[in-house]
Design brief:
By secondary structure, the chain is an alpha+beta fold. The protein folds into 2 domains: 7-67, Arc Repressor Mutant, subunit A, CATH 1.10.10; 75-178, no CATH class. Helix content is 39%, strand content 24%. The protein has helices spanning 18-25, 29-38, 53-67, 127-134, 142-157, 166-178, and strands at residues 15-17, 50-52, 75-78, 83-86, 91-101, 105-113, 120-126, 138-139. The strands form 3 sheets. It has a 4-stranded mixed beta sheet. It has a two-stranded antiparallel sheet with strand order 1-2. It starts with 14 loop residues before the first strand and ends with a helix.
């Protein structure tokens, strides 16, 4: 499957013909024929073929789940190698994306170099989850990471997520340092 198919368009308690599935999911008829060869259940082999919605949903969910790669804390997904890889010597660079996730938690980007092909690999996380990664990775730009942590603490001490911006956090962090 080259594109993600919206499985929720298929109603589980309804029968579909090949043409109905094609229109509903926006795929080519050959894709549906290929799915049948791959093991999607057919409710009726008579023409027109009928597919039970629940069977179609289950097949497509399994197909999507089989493509997912779960990463360990020290791994990245390399787009060139198309597999889970580690960073060279577990050295990473950390930068702030400027986005807020969850309850006023800044989002961070962890960057490394693929130990297989040498291309850049990225991982998005937040400061709460970064404690898992910091024990595994060697952070190259530790000063920048300390700045991000200081900004995060400033946000937690009083700035709401609606008026979060880096200049306010810098000022708040400087005020906290003076105290």
């Amino acid at each position: 499957m080259s594109k993600k198919i919206n499985i929720n368009l298929v109603k589980q308690n309804k029968f579909y013909t090949t043409q109905m599935l094609r229109k509903e999911l926006g795929v080519h008829i050959r894709s549906i024929q290929s799915w049948v060869k791959q093991g999607m259940k057919v409710a009726s082999n008579e023409r027109p073929r009928l597919f039970w919605g629940q069977d179609v949903k289950n097949f497509l969910k399994e197909k999507q789940q089989s493509r997912k790669i779960l990463l360990a804390a020290h791994e990245f997904y390399c787009l060139h190698c198309r597999k889970a890889v580690s960073s060279v010597n577990n050295k990473v660079f950390v930068s702030e994306t400027g986005k807020i996730v969850g309850d006023d938690i800044p989002e961070i980007q962890i960057m490394g170099i693929c130990d297989q092909c040498g291309s850049w690999v990225y991982r998005i996380s937040n400061l709460k989850r970064f404690s898992e990664y910091s024990s595994v990775f060697q952070i190259e730009n530790a000063e920048e990471f300390e700045k991000i942590l200081t900004k995060f603490k400033a946000v937690k001490k009083g700035l709401s997520k609606y008026n979060y911006n880096l200049s306010q956090c810098d000022r708040k962090a400087e005020e906290n340092e003076k105290i």
